Amino acid sequence: MQLGITIPLQKFLKWKSPVYGEPENLFFCWDLHVIRFHGENTLMAVNASNAFTVILWKMEWADWENLGQRTLEAIRMGLLNAGYGEETVEAYFRAAGSASFTKTHGRRPVAALNRMTDFLRQAPMKLEVDRQFQSAHSRFVNGNLLKTAGFDLPGRPEGFLNEDMEKNGIKPGRCAHEPSPGAEKCPCRRKCPRRGNCEECLAFHRDQKPGIPAACRKKKR
């Protein structure tokens, strides 16, 4: 897996210019960028093929010093947050291989990264101030329409990611109940990092007794 470092992030970290990576499938490449978001240094990791993006807010210096590990953790959380099962996530990391820092992956991936930055700044939802990984903001940006390096026509990163999984032989196993427009109002979606684990969802509503919202009533397939 290649982790491309943007020039602003390179300057922020005071790193020497990274090397160009060997030619690689863009699906296994991510470009990393730093922005100020709500007054805090924020990491964006954007897939070079499909522009699927994960966001870590309020990064401390200890996090930046361990950037590789923190990025891999964020990608893992992002894939789980998008509804992929543990087996699918593990298959992706096995196929991607060990991580190394490189230059970014060309004009088109960087252009998509810039668009994702614009989408993030337009996000209407509140921050989860007690968490670094911003699940709602990540879902928001990944639902926007744009052009990416890995696809000829415009589309949404969440859809492109699924296509990339299939094209690369990774069975995109999903949680049994898919995200829906009403899911943001469902308390279990804020409690469960898997965002779609039916057993946890139903157990939460049984315990809390608020009634099961329509968004949570789908049965396991």
From TrEMBL:
Residues annotated as domain DUF6933: 3-146
InterPro entries: DUF6933
Pfam families cross-referenced by the UniProt entry: DUF6933
Name of the featured protein: DUF6933 domain-containing protein
Native source species: [Clostridium] asparagiforme DSM 15981
